[in-house]
């Protein structure tokens, strides 16, 4: 137990110290690619503006902090559709599956596809188009593993295969995430290092041209080499405190209570009528501005949930300095419906909205089946 805690603390401090040297460097802004890795594809956590780094649970934690995957009870299936910056034609579809294996381990797989609609094909001779269309697409496939190391320490890793493509050009890369969560009753801490991988570059006929070489009369195909770009690595750390009050009645036989309602003596997450979770997080980005996140979630009888969040980065409150389309606030809600009380099977309908200017915000709608 002490060895595990010492190892976790050592790794955490090493990650923080190493990342602090490069995070938030304004001179590196815009020098990375694959920024879709920074877009949260899941509805529930979008309502909190991704502030629940320490409180992420189940399949959604594969984006926020993969350590939270270890809290999956048995099997989870999720699908989320997002209209990203509505009016920009960007749509995101995300599908995930998580499965507990053994007493302490969980594995998961997720696929995130981002589409941009149709764009006109243009050339030097036809800059206005009229010769067809093409459809850019981004796709990420993630494989995750998380484990409960003790009653208070949880960890996980996530490997992502990244692909960006159009009809005649594509780039492929691999990125790694790692995360840790520490749980102490109602107080929780989390830290995650994300998008660590090798540089990517584009290849394909799209960067080839036909022309004459050194005055030759023969046309030849010339291939230009694409420059490499780094992945948008980041370090996120945060905490959550949960407030519990009110006890739900439990069903007992009339012989035990004479027909009256009974209550559990100890207030827990399972029997609390009301749960209020307050989360805060700091995100240190290697190639963009650092961010401060705040989220609040209220749950009633573990069936109805309301969420609100706020996101801040330097300069976003002034139009002259703002470099993001998002204006800060977010909101969301969920309804969890029990399908089988004996097995604990439930289905959740999740919705989130993030405010933006320009465009008309980002809408996320998700469906989570917990078996």
Quickly list its features:
two-stranded antiparallel sheet, 14-stranded antiparallel beta barrel, 371 residues, Porin, single chain, 4 helices, mainly beta, 51% strand
CATH superfamily: monomeric porin ompg
- Please give the CATH class: Mainly Beta
How many strands? 20
Structural class, judged by helices and strands? Answer: mainly beta
Give the helix proportion (percent range): under 10%
Round the mean pLDDT to the nearest integer and report it.
88
Assess the beta-strand content as a share of residues: over 45%
Biggest β-sheet: strands ordered side by side in the sheet = 1-2-3-6-7-8-9-12-15-16-17-18-19-20
Number of helices: 4
Segments where pLDDT lies below 50 for 5+ residues?
253-257
Shape label? elongated
The gyration radius over C-alpha positions equals: 24 Å
| N- and C-termini, Cα separation | 31 Å
Would you list the SSEs in sequence order as H and E? HHHEEEEEEEEEEEEEHEEEEEEE
Give the tally of structural domains.
Answer: 1
Going by CATH, the architecture would be Beta Barrel
Quick overview:
By secondary structure, the protein is mainly β. It contains 4 helices and 20 strands.
Written account of the structure:
The chain has 371 residues and is mainly beta. The chain has one domain (2-370): Beta Barrel (Porin), CATH 2.40.160.40. The protein is built from four helices and 20 strands. It has helices at residues 2-20, 43-46, 61-64, 254-257, and strands at residues 75-84, 90-101, 105-115, 119-120, 133-134, 137-148, 153-166, 169-184, 187-197, 208-212, 219-223, 234-247, 249-250, 262-263, 272-285, 291-300, 304-313, 326-340, 345-356, 362-370. The chain has a 14-stranded antiparallel beta barrel with strand order 1-2-3-6-7-8-9-12-15-16-17-18-19-20. Strands 4-5 form a two-stranded antiparallel sheet. A hairpin with a 5-residue loop joins strand 19 and strand 20 (362-370). The radius of gyration is 24 Å and the shape is elongated. 34% of the residues are buried.
